[in-house]
Specification:
single chain; alpha+beta; OB fold (Dihydrolipoamide Acetyltransferase, E2P); Chloramphenicol Acetyltransferase; 7-stranded mixed β-sheet; 4-stranded antiparallel β-sheet; 12 helices
Length: 507
Protein backbone atom coordinates (compact mmCIF):
# COMPACT_ATOMS: atom_id res chain seq x y z
CA UNK A 1 0.00 0.00 0.00
CA UNK A 2 1.26 3.46 -0.88
CA UNK A 3 0.75 6.38 1.48
CA UNK A 4 0.55 9.79 -0.24
CA UNK A 5 1.90 12.77 1.71
CA UNK A 6 0.49 16.18 0.84
CA UNK A 7 1.68 19.70 1.64
CA UNK A 8 0.10 20.48 5.04
CA UNK A 9 -1.63 23.72 6.01
CA UNK A 10 1.06 25.89 7.64
CA UNK A 11 -0.80 29.16 8.19
CA UNK A 12 -4.05 30.94 7.36
CA UNK A 13 -2.55 33.32 4.79
CA UNK A 14 -0.08 30.85 3.23
CA UNK A 15 -1.32 29.29 -0.03
CA UNK A 16 1.89 27.76 -1.42
CA UNK A 17 5.33 26.60 -0.32
CA UNK A 18 8.67 25.81 -1.95
CA UNK A 19 10.49 22.50 -1.41
CA UNK A 20 13.71 23.61 0.19
CA UNK A 21 15.88 20.55 0.76
CA UNK A 22 15.37 16.77 0.82
CA UNK A 23 17.08 15.00 3.72
CA UNK A 24 16.27 11.55 2.28
CA UNK A 25 16.78 10.26 -1.26
CA UNK A 26 14.23 8.64 -3.57
CA UNK A 27 14.05 4.92 -2.68
CA UNK A 28 15.37 5.35 0.87
CA UNK A 29 13.75 3.50 3.74
CA UNK A 30 12.20 6.00 6.17
CA UNK A 31 10.72 5.68 9.65
CA UNK A 32 7.45 7.10 10.94
CA UNK A 33 7.87 10.80 11.97
CA UNK A 34 11.37 10.98 10.47
CA UNK A 35 12.02 14.40 8.90
CA UNK A 36 11.97 14.07 5.09
CA UNK A 37 12.49 17.61 3.82
CA UNK A 38 12.08 21.33 4.47
CA UNK A 39 9.25 23.48 3.15
CA UNK A 40 9.76 27.23 2.81
CA UNK A 41 6.94 29.77 2.87
CA UNK A 42 7.17 33.55 2.58
CA UNK A 43 7.25 33.74 6.39
CA UNK A 44 9.11 30.73 7.79
CA UNK A 45 10.67 27.32 7.16
CA UNK A 46 8.87 24.11 8.16
CA UNK A 47 9.93 20.45 8.44
CA UNK A 48 7.91 17.68 6.78
CA UNK A 49 7.76 14.43 8.80
CA UNK A 50 7.08 10.97 7.39
CA UNK A 51 3.50 9.81 7.99
CA UNK A 52 4.36 6.12 7.69
CA UNK A 53 7.26 3.66 7.63
CA UNK A 54 8.35 2.43 4.22
CA UNK A 55 10.13 3.26 0.97
CA UNK A 56 10.15 6.95 -0.02
CA UNK A 57 9.02 7.96 -3.51
CA UNK A 58 9.72 11.64 -4.21
CA UNK A 59 7.15 13.46 -6.39
CA UNK A 60 8.43 17.06 -6.16
CA UNK A 61 12.07 18.10 -6.42
CA UNK A 62 13.94 20.72 -4.40
CA UNK A 63 13.06 24.21 -5.63
CA UNK A 64 9.58 23.34 -6.88
CA UNK A 65 6.64 25.46 -5.68
CA UNK A 66 3.56 23.53 -4.54
CA UNK A 67 0.11 24.59 -3.45
CA UNK A 68 -1.26 23.59 -0.05
CA UNK A 69 -2.72 20.09 -0.41
CA UNK A 70 -0.56 19.05 -3.38
CA UNK A 71 1.16 15.64 -3.27
CA UNK A 72 4.83 16.01 -2.42
CA UNK A 73 5.84 12.34 -2.01
CA UNK A 74 4.55 8.86 -1.22
CA UNK A 75 5.69 6.00 1.01
CA UNK A 76 5.38 2.34 -0.08
CA UNK A 77 4.46 0.60 3.17
CA UNK A 78 4.32 -2.96 1.69
CA UNK A 79 8.03 -2.99 0.90
CA UNK A 80 9.01 -1.74 4.33
CA UNK A 81 9.84 -5.03 6.03
CA UNK A 82 11.72 -6.57 3.11
CA UNK A 83 13.71 -3.44 2.39
CA UNK A 84 14.48 -2.93 6.04
CA UNK A 85 15.81 -6.50 6.36
CA UNK A 86 17.98 -6.18 3.26
CA UNK A 87 19.45 -2.82 4.15
CA UNK A 88 19.86 -3.31 7.91
CA UNK A 89 23.45 -4.00 8.95
CA UNK A 90 24.31 -7.11 10.90
CA UNK A 91 24.37 -6.79 14.70
CA UNK A 92 28.17 -7.10 14.72
CA UNK A 93 28.74 -4.40 12.11
CA UNK A 94 26.13 -2.15 13.76
CA UNK A 95 27.79 -2.52 17.12
CA UNK A 96 31.15 -1.84 15.52
CA UNK A 97 29.96 1.32 13.77
CA UNK A 98 28.27 2.76 16.84
CA UNK A 99 31.29 2.04 18.97
CA UNK A 100 33.68 3.84 16.62
CA UNK A 101 31.66 6.87 15.52
CA UNK A 102 28.15 8.34 15.63
CA UNK A 103 25.92 7.28 12.77
CA UNK A 104 24.23 10.10 10.80
CA UNK A 105 20.44 10.05 10.70
CA UNK A 106 20.23 12.28 7.63
CA UNK A 107 18.40 14.96 9.60
CA UNK A 108 19.89 18.45 9.63
CA UNK A 109 18.82 20.80 12.42
CA UNK A 110 18.99 24.46 11.43
CA UNK A 111 19.53 26.80 14.37
CA UNK A 112 18.28 30.37 14.14
CA UNK A 113 18.92 33.39 16.33
CA UNK A 114 16.28 33.19 19.09
CA UNK A 115 14.13 36.05 20.32
CA UNK A 116 15.99 37.59 23.26
CA UNK A 117 13.84 40.64 24.01
CA UNK A 118 10.96 42.70 22.64
CA UNK A 119 13.07 45.64 21.47
CA UNK A 120 16.05 43.63 20.19
CA UNK A 121 16.06 43.08 16.41
CA UNK A 122 19.65 41.93 15.83
CA UNK A 123 22.62 40.40 17.63
CA UNK A 124 26.34 40.02 17.01
CA UNK A 125 27.98 36.59 17.10
CA UNK A 126 30.64 37.23 19.76
CA UNK A 127 32.53 33.94 19.67
CA UNK A 128 32.14 30.26 18.89
CA UNK A 129 32.76 27.95 21.87
CA UNK A 130 32.69 24.88 19.60
CA UNK A 131 34.56 24.61 16.30
CA UNK A 132 33.13 23.83 12.88
CA UNK A 133 32.96 20.05 12.58
CA UNK A 134 32.93 19.39 16.34
CA UNK A 135 30.50 16.93 17.87
CA UNK A 136 28.03 18.72 20.15
CA UNK A 137 25.48 17.37 22.61
CA UNK A 138 21.91 18.57 23.07
CA UNK A 139 21.79 21.76 25.21
CA UNK A 140 25.58 22.14 25.19
CA UNK A 141 26.59 25.83 24.94
CA UNK A 142 28.11 26.35 21.48
CA UNK A 143 28.37 30.15 21.11
CA UNK A 144 27.92 33.53 22.75
CA UNK A 145 25.92 36.33 21.12
CA UNK A 146 25.87 40.01 22.04
CA UNK A 147 22.81 42.23 21.85
CA UNK A 148 22.70 45.94 22.50
CA UNK A 149 21.85 45.18 26.12
CA UNK A 150 23.42 41.89 27.22
CA UNK A 151 25.36 38.75 26.28
CA UNK A 152 23.52 35.45 25.80
CA UNK A 153 24.67 31.84 25.51
CA UNK A 154 23.42 29.72 22.59
CA UNK A 155 22.69 26.05 23.43
CA UNK A 156 22.73 23.25 20.85
CA UNK A 157 19.23 22.18 19.81
CA UNK A 158 20.31 18.65 18.84
CA UNK A 159 23.21 16.22 19.18
CA UNK A 160 25.47 15.87 16.15
CA UNK A 161 28.14 17.51 14.03
CA UNK A 162 28.23 21.31 14.15
CA UNK A 163 28.49 23.27 10.90
CA UNK A 164 29.09 27.01 11.20
CA UNK A 165 27.04 29.30 8.96
CA UNK A 166 27.78 32.67 10.57
CA UNK A 167 31.28 33.80 11.54
CA UNK A 168 32.45 35.61 14.66
CA UNK A 169 31.64 39.32 14.39
CA UNK A 170 28.71 38.82 12.00
CA UNK A 171 25.56 40.83 12.76
CA UNK A 172 22.45 38.63 12.49
CA UNK A 173 18.77 39.51 12.61
CA UNK A 174 16.45 37.68 14.98
CA UNK A 175 15.42 34.50 13.14
CA UNK A 176 18.56 34.51 10.98
CA UNK A 177 20.38 31.21 10.37
CA UNK A 178 23.44 30.90 12.64
CA UNK A 179 24.50 27.24 12.22
CA UNK A 180 23.39 23.71 11.32
CA UNK A 181 23.73 20.46 13.23
CA UNK A 182 23.96 17.19 11.31
CA UNK A 183 22.00 15.00 13.71
CA UNK A 184 23.63 11.70 14.67
CA UNK A 185 22.77 8.65 16.74
CA UNK A 186 25.30 7.77 19.40
CA UNK A 187 28.27 9.71 20.70
CA UNK A 188 31.85 9.39 19.42
CA UNK A 189 34.27 7.52 21.63
CA UNK A 190 37.00 9.65 23.26
CA UNK A 191 39.59 8.18 20.88
CA UNK A 192 37.62 9.23 17.80
CA UNK A 193 35.89 12.38 19.04
CA UNK A 194 38.54 14.64 17.56
CA UNK A 195 38.20 13.02 14.14
CA UNK A 196 35.03 15.01 13.47
CA UNK A 197 37.11 18.19 13.18
CA UNK A 198 40.61 19.14 12.19
CA UNK A 199 43.16 17.89 14.75
CA UNK A 200 44.57 20.68 16.85
CA UNK A 201 47.03 21.02 19.68
CA UNK A 202 44.30 22.00 22.11
CA UNK A 203 42.39 18.76 21.42
CA UNK A 204 45.56 16.74 21.75
CA UNK A 205 45.92 18.10 25.27
CA UNK A 206 42.58 16.46 26.12
CA UNK A 207 40.32 19.44 26.88
CA UNK A 208 37.20 17.99 28.41
CA UNK A 209 34.77 20.83 27.77
CA UNK A 210 34.42 24.13 25.95
CA UNK A 211 34.32 25.97 29.29
CA UNK A 212 37.62 24.57 30.55
CA UNK A 213 40.02 27.49 30.82
CA UNK A 214 37.42 29.89 29.35
CA UNK A 215 37.17 33.16 31.30
CA UNK A 216 33.85 34.87 31.97
CA UNK A 217 33.58 38.46 30.64
CA UNK A 218 34.23 39.93 34.11
CA UNK A 219 37.15 37.56 34.75
CA UNK A 220 38.60 38.32 31.32
CA UNK A 221 38.58 42.06 32.09
CA UNK A 222 40.31 41.55 35.46
CA UNK A 223 42.97 39.26 33.96
CA UNK A 224 43.57 41.74 31.15
CA UNK A 225 44.10 44.56 33.65
CA UNK A 226 46.53 42.39 35.61
CA UNK A 227 48.33 41.32 32.46
CA UNK A 228 47.71 37.64 33.20
CA UNK A 229 46.98 35.07 30.50
CA UNK A 230 43.86 32.90 31.08
CA UNK A 231 45.96 29.83 30.22
CA UNK A 232 47.93 30.31 33.45
CA UNK A 233 44.82 30.41 35.66
CA UNK A 234 42.98 27.37 37.03
CA UNK A 235 39.19 27.72 36.79
CA UNK A 236 36.99 26.68 39.73
CA UNK A 237 33.68 27.37 37.99
CA UNK A 238 31.44 24.87 36.26
CA UNK A 239 33.41 22.59 33.90
CA UNK A 240 36.61 24.47 34.76
CA UNK A 241 35.41 27.94 33.71
CA UNK A 242 37.47 30.85 35.10
CA UNK A 243 35.25 32.92 37.41
CA UNK A 244 35.58 36.50 38.61
CA UNK A 245 36.84 35.21 41.98
CA UNK A 246 39.52 33.10 40.23
CA UNK A 247 40.70 36.19 38.34
CA UNK A 248 40.77 38.37 41.47
CA UNK A 249 42.93 35.83 43.27
CA UNK A 250 45.23 35.13 40.33
CA UNK A 251 48.85 36.20 40.64
CA UNK A 252 51.13 37.08 37.78
CA UNK A 253 53.65 34.23 37.32
CA UNK A 254 57.27 34.95 38.18
CA UNK A 255 59.11 36.36 35.21
CA UNK A 256 61.46 34.01 33.39
CA UNK A 257 64.21 34.82 30.91
CA UNK A 258 62.46 35.60 27.60
CA UNK A 259 62.71 33.06 24.84
CA UNK A 260 62.59 34.12 21.23
CA UNK A 261 60.39 31.22 20.24
CA UNK A 262 57.84 31.78 23.04
CA UNK A 263 56.38 34.91 21.42
CA UNK A 264 53.26 34.11 19.37
CA UNK A 265 53.71 34.62 15.66
CA UNK A 266 50.57 36.75 15.40
CA UNK A 267 51.44 39.05 18.30
CA UNK A 268 52.12 42.58 17.13
CA UNK A 269 55.30 44.25 18.44
CA UNK A 270 55.09 46.82 21.21
CA UNK A 271 54.48 50.34 19.85
CA UNK A 272 57.62 52.43 19.45
CA UNK A 273 57.58 55.96 20.88
CA UNK A 274 56.83 58.39 18.05
CA UNK A 275 55.36 55.71 15.77
CA UNK A 276 52.17 56.43 13.79
CA UNK A 277 50.48 53.04 13.90
CA UNK A 278 46.70 52.77 14.04
CA UNK A 279 44.33 49.89 14.68
CA UNK A 280 40.68 49.23 13.97
CA UNK A 281 38.13 47.45 16.12
CA UNK A 282 34.59 46.46 15.19
CA UNK A 283 31.97 48.35 17.21
CA UNK A 284 29.97 46.10 19.50
CA UNK A 285 26.19 45.89 19.14
CA UNK A 286 25.85 47.68 22.46
CA UNK A 287 28.04 50.62 21.44
CA UNK A 288 26.37 50.93 18.00
CA UNK A 289 22.91 50.99 19.55
CA UNK A 290 23.92 53.49 22.22
CA UNK A 291 25.42 55.71 19.50
CA UNK A 292 22.22 55.59 17.43
CA UNK A 293 20.03 56.39 20.41
CA UNK A 294 22.17 59.29 21.62
CA UNK A 295 22.14 60.90 18.18
CA UNK A 296 18.40 60.24 17.91
CA UNK A 297 17.74 61.93 21.25
CA UNK A 298 19.79 64.99 20.27
CA UNK A 299 17.90 65.28 16.97
CA UNK A 300 14.38 64.47 18.15
CA UNK A 301 14.10 66.28 21.51
CA UNK A 302 14.29 69.92 22.56
CA UNK A 303 17.00 69.13 25.09
CA UNK A 304 18.12 71.75 27.57
CA UNK A 305 20.29 71.56 30.71
CA UNK A 306 19.96 73.48 33.96
CA UNK A 307 22.61 73.50 36.73
CA UNK A 308 22.83 73.98 40.47
CA UNK A 309 25.31 73.23 43.24
CA UNK A 310 24.87 71.19 46.40
CA UNK A 311 26.64 71.51 49.73
CA UNK A 312 27.48 67.87 50.47
CA UNK A 313 28.69 68.45 54.04
CA UNK A 314 25.39 67.51 55.77
CA UNK A 315 25.24 64.18 53.92
CA UNK A 316 28.93 63.49 54.54
CA UNK A 317 28.50 64.23 58.25
CA UNK A 318 25.47 61.96 58.45
CA UNK A 319 27.31 59.14 56.66
CA UNK A 320 30.32 59.48 58.96
CA UNK A 321 28.07 59.29 62.01
CA UNK A 322 25.95 56.30 61.01
CA UNK A 323 27.88 54.34 58.35
CA UNK A 324 29.28 51.73 60.76
CA UNK A 325 25.92 51.10 62.46
CA UNK A 326 24.18 51.09 59.06
CA UNK A 327 26.54 48.46 57.65
CA UNK A 328 26.41 46.35 60.79
CA UNK A 329 22.61 46.29 60.76
CA UNK A 330 21.89 46.04 57.02
CA UNK A 331 25.05 44.39 55.68
CA UNK A 332 25.61 47.06 53.04
CA UNK A 333 27.45 50.38 52.92
CA UNK A 334 25.68 53.74 53.04
CA UNK A 335 26.55 55.57 49.82
CA UNK A 336 25.60 58.88 48.22
CA UNK A 337 23.37 57.22 45.60
CA UNK A 338 20.62 56.31 48.09
CA UNK A 339 20.37 59.95 49.20
CA UNK A 340 20.11 61.14 45.59
CA UNK A 341 17.58 58.44 44.70
CA UNK A 342 15.34 59.29 47.65
CA UNK A 343 15.59 63.03 46.93
CA UNK A 344 14.79 62.50 43.25
CA UNK A 345 11.73 60.38 44.08
CA UNK A 346 10.31 63.09 46.37
CA UNK A 347 10.92 65.79 43.74
CA UNK A 348 9.45 63.66 40.92
CA UNK A 349 6.20 63.23 42.82
CA UNK A 350 6.01 66.97 43.36
CA UNK A 351 6.85 67.78 39.72
CA UNK A 352 5.25 64.89 37.74
CA UNK A 353 6.13 66.30 34.30
CA UNK A 354 9.80 65.46 34.97
CA UNK A 355 8.70 61.84 35.50
CA UNK A 356 6.61 61.74 32.31
CA UNK A 357 7.23 60.96 28.62
CA UNK A 358 5.79 61.81 25.22
CA UNK A 359 4.00 59.06 23.29
CA UNK A 360 2.86 60.36 19.90
CA UNK A 361 0.49 63.23 20.60
CA UNK A 362 -0.03 62.27 24.24
CA UNK A 363 1.88 62.85 27.47
CA UNK A 364 2.17 59.79 29.75
CA UNK A 365 2.46 60.60 33.47
CA UNK A 366 3.70 57.95 35.93
CA UNK A 367 2.55 57.68 39.54
CA UNK A 368 5.57 55.50 40.33
CA UNK A 369 9.32 56.17 40.21
CA UNK A 370 11.39 53.56 38.35
CA UNK A 371 14.89 55.01 38.63
CA UNK A 372 17.48 53.99 36.04
CA UNK A 373 21.06 54.00 37.34
CA UNK A 374 23.79 54.37 34.70
CA UNK A 375 26.57 51.79 35.24
CA UNK A 376 29.83 51.42 33.33
CA UNK A 377 30.08 47.72 32.34
CA UNK A 378 32.98 45.94 30.57
CA UNK A 379 31.17 46.14 27.21
CA UNK A 380 29.81 49.67 27.60
CA UNK A 381 27.20 51.74 29.41
CA UNK A 382 24.15 49.91 30.75
CA UNK A 383 21.21 51.35 32.68
CA UNK A 384 19.54 48.87 35.07
CA UNK A 385 16.31 49.98 36.76
CA UNK A 386 15.31 50.22 40.44
CA UNK A 387 11.55 49.54 40.42
CA UNK A 388 9.25 51.57 42.69
CA UNK A 389 12.16 53.35 44.31
CA UNK A 390 9.74 55.79 45.97
CA UNK A 391 8.56 52.99 48.29
CA UNK A 392 12.04 51.73 49.21
CA UNK A 393 14.13 52.50 52.29
CA UNK A 394 17.78 53.59 52.21
CA UNK A 395 19.09 50.06 52.85
CA UNK A 396 16.78 48.55 50.20
CA UNK A 397 18.02 51.04 47.62
CA UNK A 398 21.67 50.40 48.51
CA UNK A 399 21.20 46.61 48.28
CA UNK A 400 19.44 46.90 44.92
CA UNK A 401 22.19 49.17 43.55
CA UNK A 402 24.91 46.73 44.65
CA UNK A 403 23.03 43.77 43.13
CA UNK A 404 22.41 45.47 39.79
CA UNK A 405 25.92 46.96 39.53
CA UNK A 406 27.51 43.56 40.24
CA UNK A 407 25.37 41.85 37.60
CA UNK A 408 26.19 44.64 35.14
CA UNK A 409 29.94 44.23 35.58
CA UNK A 410 29.58 40.44 35.19
CA UNK A 411 27.40 40.90 32.05
CA UNK A 412 24.55 39.00 33.73
CA UNK A 413 21.80 41.62 33.59
CA UNK A 414 18.54 40.36 32.10
CA UNK A 415 16.48 42.28 29.55
CA UNK A 416 13.76 42.87 32.16
CA UNK A 417 16.26 44.48 34.54
CA UNK A 418 17.23 47.04 31.87
CA UNK A 419 13.78 47.71 30.43
CA UNK A 420 11.63 50.67 31.39
CA UNK A 421 12.62 53.38 33.82
CA UNK A 422 10.97 56.77 34.23
CA UNK A 423 14.02 58.86 35.22
CA UNK A 424 17.80 58.33 35.10
CA UNK A 425 20.66 59.21 37.45
CA UNK A 426 24.24 59.15 36.13
CA UNK A 427 27.35 59.77 38.21
CA UNK A 428 30.27 61.10 36.19
CA UNK A 429 31.90 62.20 39.41
CA UNK A 430 33.37 58.74 40.00
CA UNK A 431 35.62 59.42 36.99
CA UNK A 432 36.49 62.97 38.10
CA UNK A 433 33.99 64.96 36.03
CA UNK A 434 33.37 68.45 37.44
CA UNK A 435 30.47 69.41 35.15
CA UNK A 436 28.67 67.92 32.14
CA UNK A 437 25.41 68.01 30.20
CA UNK A 438 24.08 64.41 30.29
CA UNK A 439 21.97 63.19 27.38
CA UNK A 440 18.40 62.05 28.06
CA UNK A 441 17.78 58.29 28.19
CA UNK A 442 14.85 58.02 25.73
CA UNK A 443 11.89 57.68 25.97
CA UNK A 444 12.36 59.35 29.36
CA UNK A 445 12.19 63.13 29.52
CA UNK A 446 14.94 63.98 32.02
CA UNK A 447 18.24 62.82 33.52
CA UNK A 448 20.17 63.99 36.58
CA UNK A 449 23.96 64.21 36.37
CA UNK A 450 26.08 63.94 39.53
CA UNK A 451 29.69 65.16 39.53
CA UNK A 452 32.78 65.08 41.71
CA UNK A 453 32.90 66.67 45.14
CA UNK A 454 35.40 69.53 45.40
CA UNK A 455 36.44 71.60 48.41
CA UNK A 456 35.60 75.22 47.50
CA UNK A 457 35.39 78.54 49.37
CA UNK A 458 31.73 79.51 49.81
CA UNK A 459 30.06 82.54 51.39
CA UNK A 460 27.92 81.41 54.34
CA UNK A 461 26.13 84.08 56.42
CA UNK A 462 28.69 86.67 55.43
CA UNK A 463 31.67 84.38 56.17
CA UNK A 464 33.91 82.44 53.80
CA UNK A 465 33.97 78.72 54.55
CA UNK A 466 35.61 75.78 52.77
CA UNK A 467 32.85 73.30 51.93
CA UNK A 468 32.58 70.06 49.88
CA UNK A 469 30.51 71.15 46.89
CA UNK A 470 29.03 69.22 43.95
CA UNK A 471 27.59 70.56 40.72
CA UNK A 472 24.38 68.82 39.64
CA UNK A 473 22.89 69.04 36.15
CA UNK A 474 19.38 68.28 34.93
CA UNK A 475 18.99 67.69 31.19
CA UNK A 476 15.33 67.70 30.15
CA UNK A 477 13.04 67.67 27.12
CA UNK A 478 11.63 71.18 26.83
CA UNK A 479 8.66 69.83 24.81
CA UNK A 480 7.09 68.39 27.97
CA UNK A 481 9.00 70.07 30.83
CA UNK A 482 8.90 73.85 31.17
CA UNK A 483 11.69 75.94 32.64
CA UNK A 484 9.76 76.55 35.85
CA UNK A 485 9.30 72.82 36.43
CA UNK A 486 12.90 71.86 35.62
CA UNK A 487 14.47 74.58 37.79
CA UNK A 488 12.03 73.98 40.64
CA UNK A 489 12.71 70.24 40.49
CA UNK A 490 16.47 70.74 40.76
CA UNK A 491 16.10 73.30 43.57
CA UNK A 492 13.93 70.80 45.48
CA UNK A 493 16.59 68.09 45.04
CA UNK A 494 19.24 70.55 46.30
CA UNK A 495 17.07 71.45 49.31
CA UNK A 496 16.58 67.78 50.27
CA UNK A 497 20.27 66.92 49.88
CA UNK A 498 21.50 69.90 51.88
CA UNK A 499 19.12 69.00 54.74
CA UNK A 500 18.74 65.19 54.46
CA UNK A 501 16.63 65.01 57.64
CA UNK A 502 13.80 66.30 55.41
CA UNK A 503 13.88 62.91 53.66
CA UNK A 504 13.07 61.21 56.97
CA UNK A 505 10.08 63.43 57.75
CA UNK A 506 8.79 64.00 54.20
CA UNK A 507 9.01 67.78 54.34
Amino acid sequence: MSKEIIVPTVGESITEVTVGQWFKNDGDHVQMDEILCELESDKATFELPAEATGILRIKAQAGETLEIGAVICSIDEEQASASKDSTAPSPKSEAKSTSNSPSPTGEVKEMIVPTVGESITEVTLANWLKKDGDYVSLDEIIAEVDSDKATFELPAEASGILRHIAQEGDVLEIGGLICKIEVTEGKPSPANETSTSAPEASQAKGNTNYATGHASPAASKILSEKGISPESVSGTGKDGRITKEDAQGAQKPASTPPKAESKPANESPAPVLGSRNERRERMSSLRKTVAKRLVSVKNETAMLTTFNEVNMKPIMDMRSKFKEQFKEKHGVGLGFMSFFTKAVCVALQEWPAVNAKIDGNEMVFNDFCDISIAVSAPKGLVVPVIRNAEAMSFDQIEKEIVKLATKARDNKLSIEEMTGGTFTITNGGVFGSMMSTPIINAPQSAILGMHNIVQRPMAVNGEVKILPMMYVALSYDHRIIDGRESVSFLVRVKELLEDPTRLLFGV
